[in-house]
Amino acid sequence: MRQTTQITIEHIVVASDRSYEQVIEALEAQLGPRADWENSARALITPNTSWEQAVQLVEQQLGTSGFTILSKIEPGALLTLSGKPTRAAQYAIGNPLLAIQMIEHAPEVAFYAPLRLVVYENRAGQAVVAYERFTGASCPVCEPGDCTGRTAGGAKAGGAGSSGDRSWAGDTR
């Protein structure tokens, strides 16, 4: 069996009046500390670990945004070595508990979990944040025809920044 579904994804670019460092600092403050998820998951996979213990561990890692940093890659350092000084950071962010709910509802959503978010400094020295989110009826986890950001099971869906709180970006243009 083969099934093809077309989805629409918005690519959002937000220019900030804050410096690159200020945007990174504010973003990471909302996302909470970056945990060692690989070792945490390994430690949880024991016969004596309960689901409640796993939930508690994940919830301790979530920032005020309800998301956490799963990984951070800084390609800017490599670009600088190539002779093109660039400051950039790519984040994989998410909430593992939310991801489980969404994947249970629509397994294909695992393509989009975790979410990705990029912060970079443009040539004018301005901090820029880019991320993507589903739009309209194309959201693979929302009720058909009603992409309000809630799945059929009630979980929050959508892309980074779908909650509307982008205070980490400062005044945007």
Q: Can you tag this structure with a few keywords?
A:
5 helices, two-stranded antiparallel sheet, 5-stranded antiparallel beta sheet, 173 residues
End-to-end separation in angstroms reads 46 Å
Q: What oligomeric state do these chains adopt?
A: single chain
- Give the helix proportion (percent range): 25-40%
**Range of strand content:** 15-25%
Q: Give the second-level CATH assignment, the architecture.
A: 2-Layer Sandwich
Which sequence of strands runs across the widest sheet? 1-5-4-3-2
Tell me what the structure shows.
Helix content is 28%, strand content 25%. It is an alpha+beta fold and 173 residues long. It has one domain (9-169): 2-Layer Sandwich (TATA-Binding Protein). The strands form two sheets. Strands 1-5-4-3-2 form a five-stranded antiparallel β-sheet. A hairpin with a 5-residue loop joins strand 4 and strand 5. It is globular and about 55 Å long.
Short recap of the structure:
It contains five helices and seven strands, in the order E-H-H-H-E-H-E-H-E-E-E-E. By secondary structure, the protein is of the alpha+beta class.
Could you give the topology of this structure?
Elements: E1 9-15, H1 20-31, H2 37-44, H3 51-61, E2 68-73, H4 75-81, E3 88-94, H5 96-105, E4 115-121, E5 127-134, E6 142-143, E7 146-151
Antiparallel strand pairs: 1-5, 2-3, 3-4, 4-5, 6-7
